[in-house]
Design brief:
Layout lengths: L23 H14 L3 H11 L4 H4 L2 H4 L6 H6 L31 H13 L5 H18 L17 E4 L2 E4 H11 L5 H8 L4 H8 L3 H18 L3 E2 L1 H30 L14
Parallel strand pairs: 1-3
Antiparallel strand pairs: 1-2
Amino acid sequence: MLRSSIKVLAVSLGLLSSSVFAWGQNGHRVIGELAQNHLTPNASSHVQLILGDDSLAEVSTWPDEMRSNPEHFWRRQAGKWHYINIDKPELMHEHNNALISEKNEVKHILDGIHYTANVLKDPSSDLIDKQFALKFLVHLVGDAHQPFHAGRAADHGGNKIKVEFFGKPSNLHKVFDTELVEHERLSYTELTQFLTTSNKNVIANYLNSAPSDWLLESNRIAEEIYESNETEISWGYIYKHTPMIKTRLQQGGIRLAGLLNQIFDKNSKPLVNALAKR
């Protein structure tokens, strides 16, 4: 996984089944597209062998699209892969099972990220398993950067908190996964272009982290939003929170690229050449 020089904090978890989506389609596609643009040639070749003609942006929404699949996994198990409810951030390490190797052992998004990454690293994994793992991993890295996928169990990650978005009924989760992104009035390719960075210091800072850190970041942001207790959302709210949304999308794309490069390219080193040169 990505190198972490930050001391891993950790967690006590309260899990809650949920049918919510994260980032909406455009947000997930931005993260996938940004990651695709930063794959090393070796990593890009491996991704193409697994996905064929599909791009990371195209598969980024696949787990959400599969929610109506009648199979037991999608009906009863997949939902908990998308989120984590963090009650005690200082205990995260107790639930940071980086060696998880069985699908039925996944209890939350952090498990899901480790499981899918481990499948992709395993030379004995067949193509079907790798396709499942890569599609889900792209999506989960995106989910990990949406603040309310590390929110509170009591309100379903903000879904039960009613707000008004420019006078129209909404909820806190929806505002941050879709409405703030869509308010930019940009296609996912346009937004990706605006968020692309070659700043080495910024990239190194993003990569100097692990999936547990991403979720703790999201939890901290979510708690700050909870505490602000704002329910009338208009231009001032947009001005205040859109920069954070753009940062989270940028972080998600860069970190996904770094993770995939480390999985598929043995010459890719964290903070040194984990990303393709742009």
